[in-house]
Amino acid sequence: MQIKVVLLAACGMIGLWPAIAAAQQLPPPTPQELAKVAAALPASAPAKPAKARKVLVFGRTAVGAFFEKGYVHKTIPLGCETIKMLGEKTGAFQAVVSYDASMFDADKLKEFDAIVLVSTINDFLDEPNNRQIEETRKQALLNFVRNGKGLVGIHAAADAYFNWPEYGQMMGAYFSRHTTAQEKVAIVNEDPHNPINAAFDGKGFDYADEIYRFLPKPKYDVKQAYSRENVRVLLSVDVAKNNNEPAGTDLPISWVHQFGKGHVFYCSLGHNDYVYWDPAILKHYLAGIQYAIGDLKADDTPSAKEKTAAAK
Predict the structure, then answer these.
(1) In a structure prediction context, what are the per-residue pLDDT tens digits for the chain, which is 312 residues long?
(2) Any residues with CB less than 8 A from the CB of 30 and at least 6 apart, and which?
(3) pTM for the full model?
(4) DSSP 3-state of 185
(5) How far apart are the first and last CA of the chain?
């Protein structure tokens, strides 16, 4: 299997370009890694597709205007191939893996039912020599979701486009920080009856990954995106069992919400390679993708609004 990586043709931050170029040239998953993924794939999808589905799996990263360095997750090719294998094994969708920003031209997006962004850090649609093309593709992405298609964000997809408020609102949050790459946390199953959480059998679980925090206040003059008023939290960290955050800290792991007529699923797990051969996480991903496509019906009432309704 050969994965083609499309690099930026130019970069205004000249001093950083060699490191960024080297980071973008990520090797494909090894046969051993793919074998582990194959062994962990679910046998079937939680919902029968209403029709043949096609998903764009995108793994490109770029240097954003507010970033001092470029970072590319080495697990991006593995993550992209895992999503593709999920669709093939279960028949839920056909996937096209790409690192080419031109896939976000409106005429190309028409053929897809959903987009999966795998750790697309920074301004991943950046066109250094043609800002208008980038703006046109950004608008095409917004229109894609607002008009009823699906969007899925894996891990660093929330660490992107801080200078584009609509992106944060669409994704549901902006990344703020993390501690270690293998932070051990207790994860709360906040919505045990939601079909997207079916893989966890109604229970919480312990996990170790690069656990993201999300912006609690505006940064870079953008609007704050994360709020339980806007998204339905599926999984979160039990901070009472996590000494890295003060009591009462809201630390979500995954959520769903509607954006216009479209559906969005986000999960912050996905930094480390072993996440992509964890059977329960793969089922969670698959259910979230089918929700985003529209084949899996799930309650996406924002958490705060449901709590208010229950209290009344």
Answers:
(1) 333 333 232 233 333 333 333 335 688 999 999 999 999 999 999 999 999 999 999 999 874 443 344 578 999 999 999 999 999 999 999 999 999 999 999 999 999 999 999 999 989 998 878 889 999 999 999 999 999 999 999 999 999 998 899 999 999 999 988 999 999 999 999 999 999 999 999 999 999 999 999 987 555 555 556 889 999 999 999 999 977 788 888 999 999 999 999 999 999 999 999 999 999 999 999 999 999 999 999 999 999 876 665 554
(2) none
(3) 0.88
(4) strand
(5) 56
Sheet of 114-118, strands arranged across: 94-98, 54-58, 114-118, 150-154, 262-267, 252-259, 232-237, 183-189, 205-209
Say if residues 7 and 25 touch (Cβ distance below 8 Å). Answer: yes
Distance (Å, rounded) from C-alpha 122 to C-alpha 98?
Answer: 17
Q: What are phi and psi of 289, to 5 degrees?
A: -65, -45
Q: Is 60 left (phi over 0), alpha (psi -120 to 50) or beta?
A: beta
The C-alpha R_g of the chain, in whole angstroms, comes to: 18
Q: What angle do CA 277, 193, 299 make, to 5 degrees?
A: 100
